[in-house]
UniProtKB/TrEMBL annotation:
Residues 596-793 form the Transketolase-like pyrimidine-binding domain. Belongs to the alpha-ketoglutarate dehydrogenase family. It comes from Janthinobacterium psychrotolerans. SMART domains: Transket_pyr (SM00861). Homodimer. Part of the 2-oxoglutarate dehydrogenase (OGDH) complex composed of E1 (2-oxoglutarate dehydrogenase), E2 (dihydrolipoamide succinyltransferase) and E3 (dihydrolipoamide dehydrogenase); the complex contains multiple copies of the three enzymatic components (E1, E2 and E3). It catalyses: N(6)-[(R)-lipoyl]-L-lysyl-[protein] + 2-oxoglutarate + H(+) = N(6)-[(R)-S(8)-succinyldihydrolipoyl]-L-lysyl-[protein] + CO2. This is 2-oxoglutarate dehydrogenase E1 component. Its EC number is 1.2.4.2. The keyword Nucleus does not apply. The gene is sucA. One of its GO terms (biological process) is tricarboxylic acid cycle. One of its GO terms (cellular component) is cytosol. Keywords: Glycolysis, Oxidoreductase, Thiamine pyrophosphate.
Length: 950
């Protein structure tokens, strides 16, 4: 209330009226007159009486404050006569300041093409508040409302406000709820009136970056006519912004920066920011490439890394590989940053910085942007704030009218959901762009939150260099054709200021072209042979021959020790009675007195890995408990008194020197979270990174991540990943949505030993499978079709001894000792839960001439192991593939050729299962049951339908 109590017209006699207004305002700001609402709004941004920055003053303190004022009489030297008119003007001046903070960006000079007329905003005119020309020389004390001089005439105040909020920088931040953040931004902008004051040396450096940005594009345009490069021309100031971000981040202690961006300007960033040798880029334009990748990718999808010298020391830069799905790289970058933070023990992101570069249309249009923003301040995904840079060329892709591009005023409006401030800047004012960049980086480092730089520019050429934008944008491209270019404008400005000689700009252009002709680096200095102590050596995991085998057994004594640790809770910790039963049963399992269920097999795998030094990161929408209440990795004290306390994670208490175990119940997102975990896995090979879908079909919402990164990242970019996807799968009569994890989609993506698709059926199998993922000396994505009903099926249990010996079995042959191999004429091959249905059906039928073989690993197909199982039956005539899924789905069409390859001459292959369907499963339980019954009947009866003879 400091501002209220230091204004002379608010003396004690008026306190009840003002206090009533303020109470009404606290309850509902819209219930008070506009001028009082603006006044109270302004009070939110000045210190309170007690010196804090709390904006919402308690009712009682307001009463006390006014009561004291009433006793003390008028404030300062004010006479008892109340100057109502002067009081009104002071309120009006405060309202004017608030209006510019809220609305000034709408009047900012942001468009280099000057196409838009300034909108009518009466609130930004003095006359709106009753001021006239006679008031312009009235002096106001603005020390408590504006970060500038203590007093100012209305004329000067108006100039201050317009300089600060309506010139080349348009700031949006008043929607932020934290007063400290708002005051910080107000002070940064208002104290200098958003006007840079750079040295001549700094200005020349900015021109150098503009020259490099423009020079590269023009060089490529003349040397490689018509080739796609997604030119940055019109937005060259972006390179100056990137340079400033990196250099200033280095000064503030950042040691690693991960950059994500789509196509526009990417080649420019590679050469002029990361220091890729121009000669290497030229070779790519000329079609030269290495033979180390099976597929490779186009040049504007490529990533790169380098080490750059800054005033604060070396900074490692990584540009993430990115497909044409534009914004999908955002969560990948965030995941990579999180892994680097964890490796450094950098919980707040002081040493690692994510930078995301967006196009205006994609930033507004693609949903993964919102999903990624929603992760920003959550515990499991916080990366210390991201600097977002929008290369806003005002045209998007091919949209001919801005009204069709988005439904918001600005392309950046989506960030208001997390209250991230936005600085819109005119790209034709490079110094303003650099100043805004400094403020953005400082804000991120101070508050560890996201901030946006919206660099408003234009696109000189088409979406790509084979496009003719004037076909749909004739007016815009007439303006662009008349524009001399940002570099020329800024060079002329520096000449006029006497910073450079008249021919200085031209000499810089010529020098850059000479460097291009020589293929020299354009970033000085790029550090070679620098070794960061936190860097991960991927060499031990690369170029390794595929193998299914791995020594995954754990000694019995260690298994029992681990079991005891993960089934013990602190004495004063009260678990739920159901969980108490689970822990009791697991204790019995851990002593070898009962077969292990799936949850215990999984837990022992995790416990053995963290005890051996492998970290684990397990995330998903219900990862702690498990969707089907089988995991219970996080225990909750039933007597806890606070929602944010009273949990115990046994897997974090396996041993004193164990590796970290992290389990996170993620936000309700698939695409962003899965991409985040993929990014994490590509930066940390020694962590078992797992994403668990709530139901397997939830992976549908993340298909872009699966197609563009998980399945193909290695063959396109050489990016290895050991990411595990757990996808609950099983036909239990629960309808079309949550029956199938769509194994056919994953199998269709399989080639070149790019990933593993498995469907384990026992507790021992999941134990060995998870351990195999880390023990083997290579990293491949692993897709697990995890069960639902088998989680508690006693037949799927395993004795503890199976964990102390053996390994993951890609194929499990017939296990029933009653089956005589010589009498077997038919083998039913299957995968997953249907195996147990088949076993029970065989018991009922008493059909002992039929063996059942489980295919636990669908890809890579275990040819030798499968053929070896078939050879055990000398009189085998036919093999039937049985599956729960419809015929056009599941594994059948993807693996039938592999099964056929394992047959002997004269043997036949047939199919048993549900008929082809447009839906993954039927929705009526009785129909599901009828199909299940028919499936089992077909598997054991005379062959019909599709039959293939070798």
């Amino acid at each position: 209330m400091q501002q209220l109590t230091t204004n002379s017209y608010l003396f004690g006699g008026n306190a009840p009226y003002v206090e009533d207004l303020y109470e009404a305002y606290l309850n509902n700001p819209g219930s008070v007159p506009d001028n009082w609402r603006a006044y109270f709004d302004a009070m939110q941004h000045v210190p309170a009486v007690d010196g804090t920055n709390k904006p919402d003053v308690a009712h009682a303190s307001v009463v006390a404050s006014f009561a004291e004022r009433a006793k003390a009489g008028p404030i300062r030297t004010v006479t008892a006569s109340f100057d109502a008119e002067m009081g009104r003007k002071r309120v009006a001046a405060t309202q004017l300041i608030a209006a510019y903070r809220y609305l000034g960006s709408h009047w900012a000079n942001l468009d280099p093409l000057q196409r838009q007329e300034r909108p009518m905003i009466p609130e930004l005119e003095p006359s709106f508040y009753g001021f006239n020309d006679a008031d312009m020389d009235t002096v106001f004390n603005i020390s408590n409302t504006y970060f500038g001089p203590e007093t100012a005439t209305l004329r000067d105040l108006l100039n201050y406000l317009r300089d600060t909020y309506t010139r080349s920088i348009g700031a949006e931040f008043m929607y932020i709820s934290d007063p400290a953040e708002k005051r910080w931004l107000q002070e940064k902008l208002e104290s200098i009136r958003s006007t840079p004051n750079f040295s001549a040396e700094k200005k020349v450096h900015i021109l150098d970056r503009l020259t490099a940005a423009e020079g590269l594009e023009r060089y490529l345009h003349t040397r490689y006519v018509g080739q796609k490069r997604f030119s940055l021309e019109g937005g060259e100031t972006f390179i100056a912004s990137m340079d400033e971000t990196i250099q200033r981040a280095g000064e503030k202690g950042v040691q690693e920066i991960v950059i994500g961006m789509a196509h526009r300007g990417r080649l420019n960033v590679l050469v002029n920011t990361l220091g890729k040798a121009p000669q290497e880029l030229f070779e790519e334009f000329e079609g030269k490439h290495g033979d180390d990748l099976p597929a490779g990718d186009v040049k504007y999808h490529q990533g790169f890394s380098s080490d750059i010298s800054t005033a604060g020391g070396p900074v490692h830069l990584s540009l993430a590989f990115n497909p044409s799905h534009l914004e999908i790289v955002n969560p990948v970058v965030e995941g990579s940053v999180k892994a680097r933070m964890d490796r450094r023990g950098d919980a707040q992101g002081a040493q690692v910085l994510p930078i995301l570069v967006h196009g205006d249309a994609a930033f507004a249009g693609q949903g993964v942007v919102m999903e990624t923003l929603n992760l920003a301040q959550t515990r499991g995904y916080h990366t210390g704030g991201t600097v977002h840079i929008v290369i806003n060329n005002q045209i998007g892709f091919t949209t001919s009218d801005p009204r069709d591009a988005r439904s918001t005023l600005y392309c950046s409006d989506v960030v208001k959901m997390i209250e991230a401030p936005v600085l819109h800047i005119n790209a034709d004012d490079p110094e303003a762009v650099v100043l805004a960049t400094q403020i953005a980086l400082d804000y991120r480092m101070e508050f560890k939150k996201d901030i946006v730089l919206d660099i408003i520019c234009y696109r000189k050429l088409g979406h790509n260099e084979q496009d003719t934008p004037a076909l749909t944008q004739p007016l815009m491209y007439k303006k662009i054709g008349q524009h001399p270019g940002t570099r020329k404008l800024y060079a002329d400005k520096l000449v006029a200021q006497g910073v450079i000689p008249a021919d200085g700009g031209d000499k810089m252009v010529a020098a850059f072209r000479d460097a291009m002709d020589a293929g020299k680096h354009t970033v000085d200095p790029v550090i070679s042979n620098f070794k960061n102590k936190y860097a991960v050596d991927w060499l031990p995991f690369l170029n390794k021959k595929w193998t299914d085998s791995a020594d995954t057994a754990v000694p019995m004594t260690e298994l029992k020790r681990l079991a005891a640790r993960i089934t013990t809770v602190p004495e004063d910790f009260k678990v739920h009675s159901l969980v108490e039963k689970v822990l009791g049963d697991r204790g019995t399992m851990g002593r070898g007195e009962m077969n292990l269920d799936w949850g215990m097999g999984e837990h022992l795998a995790y416990a053995s890995l963290v005890s051996s030094g492998y970290a684990i990161r397990l995330t998903g929408q219900d990862a702690g408990r498990g969707t089907f209440v089988h995991r219970h990795a996080v225990l909750h004290d039933q007597n806890r008194e606070r929602w944010d306390a009273g949990t115990y994670i046994p897997l974090q208490n396996v041993s004193d020197s164990q590796a970290p175990f992290t389990v996170i119940d993620s936000v309700l997102s698939e695409e962003a979270v899965l991409a985040f975990e993929y990014g994490y896995s590509t930066a940390e090979p020694n962590t078992l990174t797992i994403w668990e879908a709530q139901f397997g079909d939830f992976a549908n919402g993340a298909q872009v991540v699966i197609d563009q990164f998980i399945s193909s990242g290695e063959v396109k970019w050489g990016r290895a990943s050991g990411l595990v996807m757990m996808l609950p799968h099983g036909y239990e009569g629960q309808g079309p949505e949550h029956s199938s994890a769509r194994p056919e989609r994953f199998l269709q993506l399989c080639a070149d030993n790019n990933m593993q698709v498995v469907q384990p059926t026992t507790a021992a199998q999941i134990f060995h499978l998870l351990r195999r993922q880390m023990v083997r000396q290579f990293r491949k994505p692993l897709v697990i079709m995890t069960p639902k009903s088998l989680l508690r099926n006693k037949d799927a249990g395993s004795p503890l001894t199976d964990l102390a010996k053996g390994s993951f079995q890609t194929v499990i042959g017939e296990v029933d000792e009653k089956i005589d191999a010589k009498k077997v004429k038919r083998v039913i091959a299957c995968s997953g839960k249907v195996y147990y249905d088949l076993v029970n059906a065989r018991k009922t039928r008493g059909q002992l001439d039929t063996a059942i073989v489980r295919l636990e690993q669908l890809y890579p197909f275990p040819h030798k192991s499968f053929a070896a199982e078939l050879k055990k039956f000398p009189n085998l005539v036919e093999v039937v593939w049985a599956q729960d899924e419809p015929q056009n789905q599941g594994a059948w069409f993807q693996i039938q050729h592999n099964i056929f390859e394992g047959l002997e001459s004269g043997q036949r292959l047939a199919y048993a299962g549900r008929p082809a369907s447009a839906s993954p499963a039927v929705g009526y339980y009785d129909k599901h049951y009828a199909q299940q019954k028919d499936l089992l009947e077909t598997a054991f009866s005379k062959l019909k339908g599709f039959i293939l003879t070798k």
